[in-house]
Design a protein that fits this description.
The protein is an alpha+beta fold. The chain is 25% helix and 54% strand. It is elongated. The protein starts with a helix and ends with a helix. The relative contact order is 0.19.
């Protein structure tokens, strides 16, 4: 933060030429790194803040741009999705409604101003019925046959027969879930979930009841929960020096961006600082300077 104060002080006291040069530059504070637990997977996030300084009458206008790097989340999204508790039992019930979900492709990318969670996979529908024919085997057991004589005798042991299973259909699907980062008010931002885009493929595309619930809505809700845990706006604000936060900066905008090929969250903030306050900041800096 001292670097920021020095920059501000230079802006106040310098010539117009120097002020213009400083206004055109960004002052980097950070980066800082922190870790989020996302469904049991540690995800490392890095946030950095860029400051710009402008003069407005007798006040200074400070703008802060916070950028949170979500590259590690993108790399680990597959492992995170693999931890979802998806239907995997082809005989959970004696019925024709036993879905088994497979998701070989899972990605998190930036597209059209949003973070897009994309998956491709299939849902296999299984019919499972109770077997009327029990399993059986002969076991030799020792029994008392009388007169104190014990000997091995055959005994038939039975147990329920293996369920009768039949794969009814395989429904391939692609699903995209767009997620936007938006400004709610001067003090907060949030994730907003767009309409899931689900494409059913293959000859069984007419089978939608249950399939969409398993392959689309539920998984999308899990994806939303994942992003809510990973993209924590309050954690992103940790990259902002406490001295700047004391001026109650307002949030001007928030969005997802492409940052050098990686998904990132951007929050823009600003605060008006009276010149008298800047003088006090500079005096405090001088007083703390070693003699």
């Amino acid at each position: 933060m001292r670097a920021l104060i020095v920059c501000v002080a230079a802006l106040v006291s310098s010539s117009t030429e120097r002020a213009a040069a400083i206004e055109s530059d960004d002052l980097l504070v950070g980066p800082i790194s922190y870790q989020q637990d996302v469904n049991g997977i540690p995800v490392n996030l890095t946030a950095r803040t860029y400051f710009k300084v402008q003069t407005i009458e007798n006040k200074l206008f400070l703008k802060a741009q916070v950028i949170g790097d979500l590259g590690d989340l993108q790399q680990k999204i597959g492992t995170i999705v693999d931890g979802f508790k998806l239907p995997q039992e082809n005989c959970k019930s004696y019925s024709a409604n036993n879905p088994v979900v497979s998701i070989p492709r899972k990605e998190l990318s930036f597209r059209d101003g949003s973070a897009v969670f994309s998956i491709s996979g299939s849902v296999a529908m299984w019919d499972c019925r109770e077997n009327p024919v029990p399993n059986s085997k002969v076991e030799w057991v020792i029994e008392n046959v009388g007169l104190g004589i014990k000997t091995k005798v055959p005994k038939v042991v039975t147990w329920p027969g293996d369920p009768i299973k039949n794969k009814l259909a395989i429904q391939p699907f692609d699903a995209d879930l767009p997620v936007a980062l938006v400004r709610l008010n001067d003090a907060s931002v949030a994730l907003t979930i767009g309409r899931p885009a689900i494409e059913l493929k293959g000859q069984f595309a007419f089978i939608t009841n249950g399939i969409l619930t398993v392959a689309g809505i539920d998984i999308n809700q899990k994806a939303q929960d994942t992003l809510n845990r990973a993209v924590d706006p309050e954690k992103l604000k940790l990259a902002i020096p406490a001295e700047f936060q004391e001026f109650n900066p307002k949030i001007d905008s928030a969005r997802f961006i492409d940052d050098g090929g990686q998904l990132a969250a951007e929050i823009n903030m600003s605060a008006l600082i009276p010149a008298a306050k800047v003088t006090a900041m500079i005096k405090d800096l001088i007083d703390k300077k070693p003699q």
